[in-house]
Amino acid sequence: MKLGEKLRYLRLVEGTLRGLGREMTQQELARSLKEEMGQSLSQSYLSQIESGARPHLTNSSRMLLAKYFKVHPGYLVDDPEGYHTELLSDLRVLEDTVDLWLISGAERFRRDPEVCHALLTVAKHEDSRKCLVLMGAILETPKLVDRLLEVLKPERAAVASATGDSR
To answer: How far is CA 60 from the centre of its chain?
Structure first.
């Protein structure tokens, strides 16, 4: 993952943790750094990092952002080609990985509010793994998706049946 992607991802996670329901904007991050950390980075500097126009952080910027986001300073660099962060032994680590994956997916589907909201809701659940297992069981049961949609989201089911869309 590139540094710019990591910074954008951290803004998304921070926005979610702060209850914004969206990523924290670069401007909000710049303002928060000044208010909460007593140091500043400009929105334009953050933009240059995220766009890749500035491929590296200064050491002081790296330390400030690491402290703010509560990550190791070494995280705020480009990952080497082929580098993987997944650990396969600890279930809690796996659940955290699933949650981060869901949040990342929500970011990718931010233009589809229903999907974005659903992914964030699962990620915030105490046991997101159990939610995904349950979803798998629902999908394996013929016609259960349509029936649940009729009961839980009647307005969505009406639109789906009118358009022939079974999503």
So the answer is: 26
For the stretch 73-107, pLDDT in tens is 888 888 777 655 554 445 555 666 777 888 888 88
Angle made by CA atoms 12, 15, 21, in degrees to the nearest 5: 100
pTM beyond cutoff 0.85: no
What pLDDT score was predicted for residue 51? 93
Q: What is the pLDDT of residue 159?
A: 61
Q: 3.40.50.720, 3.40.120.10, 1.10.260.40, 3.30.559.70: which CATH number matches 3-75?
A: 1.10.260.40
Residue 46, token pair as written in the block: 């953050």
